[in-house]
Amino acid sequence: MSKAITKRADDYSQWYNDLIIKAGLADYSAVRGCMVIKPYGYALWENMRDALDKMFKDTGHVNAYFPLFVPKSLFEAEEKNAEGFAKECAVVTHYRLKTDPNQPGKLMVDPDARLEEELVVRPTSEAIIWNTYKNWIQSYRDLPILVNQWANVVRWEMRTRLFLRTAEFLWQEGHTAHATQQEAVAEARQMLEVYASFAEDWMALPVVKGVKSESERFAGAVDTYCIEALMQDGKALQAGTSHFLGKNFAKAFEAKISDRNNQLDYVWATSWGVSTRLIGALVMAHSDDEGLVLPPKIAPLQVVIVPIFKGQEDLDVLNQQIHPLMAELKAMGIRVKYDDTDNNRPGWKFAEYEMKGVPVRIALGARDLANGVAEVARRDTKEKQTLPLAGLATQVQQLLEQIQTNLYQRALAFRQANTRPANTWDEFVQLLDNAGGFVSAHWDGTAQTEEKIKELTKATIRCIPLDAAEEAGTCILSGQPSNRRVLFARAY
């Protein structure tokens, strides 16, 4: 089977789909809108998950697990949240099938097995979690509650794309309860910083930290903080959100505490999450026409060694050098694979690991061994160099660090080059149509203007940057006063 993929310049969307499939990250499933995450893709998610999990625990959070099903009455308790997710809900109405008497061998829903109350398959877990938290909380001494769960959720999407938007996906969702507003806001902001650090330090993905406009907030939130990233096609992608929920869910579920003055009051809440959508962001931010380009910190394989040999005798000689090198790399914590199979030629292997985005490839043949060197290729720049076998493991370790830094700097330079100001409506439309990227422009702060801009251009306010300086101006559409710029973009 050919490994060729569509070029980005020809059809970016098809390039993305081709790459996900041919690099072995995921596959389509028998369930419409759902995906199978293949071992290589799941290994990538595990590396991301493990790094994030440590960051959560380092900030005092613990993991728990809550049910997949939410009774409909609980789901309805927080009105805005229920309304925001209602159209995406999968609902369980019956608990049993039976043989269809009119079609032997076929099954039908048993009409006598209807549930007393319908169950919503969680699109998010605030309802079931806050119904539990109310039983855990009596006094301010029971706070804060700092809980995260790793789970799957279901949102019945009509138009799906692997990793970016699927009916079922994997994620983590943090849910915290606090005695004061200040503590809850600080928690939401802290988790935004955790997400930004993970994106930049591990994914080599520069992000803009900001707050969503009222129209773009999470359903049921007082404020939604977000990190926004820019993909190579000039579209934005929301890479993570952290929500200050105020007292909305505490009031919906009667979660009260006795405070320090022995007065009853509702608690303050946050929720925050990132999902397997980050894999889509990773692919679109770094990869090229030859395949994946993965940051070494989270790549399932960081190094692959390909021996060049003609027979078992050649391979036995090479093994005397390669096995100690493997042991040394593993001792450094480097994820390395030795592909000494003889069912494919070296050139095929080179193309295969290039497609999979392995950051460093080492090739070693009899002539290299005689000269005491190996050919080392880096995936990000495709540069090859001949390096001495003595001290090679240390040089590879340094090379991995260089690749990680280079990928971040390359993505940052791209974002900076594709973030442009617009001062008039005509300039705004021209930038969106001709260049894409982030457009920094004034907005009058009204939902009506925001909706009209979206209707006319398909661009949304991605965020109000947290570091946006005050600047007097006029809205690009309405001409009304504005005191700061916001970031617009077309988005996934």
Descriptive notes:
Helix 2 crosses helix 6. The radius of gyration is 26 Å and the shape is globular. It starts with 11 loop residues before the first helix and ends with a strand. The strands form 7 sheets. Strands 3-9-10-16-13-12-11-24-27-23-22 form an 11-stranded mixed sheet, with helices on both faces. A 5-stranded mixed sheet has the order 18-17-19-20-21, sandwiched between helices. Strands 4-8-5 form a 3-stranded antiparallel sheet. 35% of the residues lie in helices and 28% in strands. It is built from 14 helices and 27 strands. With 492 residues, the chain is an alpha+beta fold. The model has no long low-confidence stretch (mean pLDDT 96). A hairpin with a 7-residue loop joins strand 6 (97-99) and strand 7.
Query: Which spans of ≥5 residues are poorly predicted at pLDDT below 50?
Result: none
Overall, the morphology is globular
Mean pLDDT metric? 96
* Main β-sheet description: 11 strands, mixed
Query: Numbering strands along the chain, what is their spatial order in the largest sheet?
Result: 3-9-10-16-13-12-11-24-27-23-22
Give the C-alpha Rg: 26 Å
What is the strand tally?
27
Quickly count the helices.
14
Q: Which structural category fits the helices and strands? A: alpha+beta
Helicity, as a percent range:
25-40%
Q: What is the end-to-end distance?
A: 31 Å
> How large is the share of residues in beta strands?
25-35%
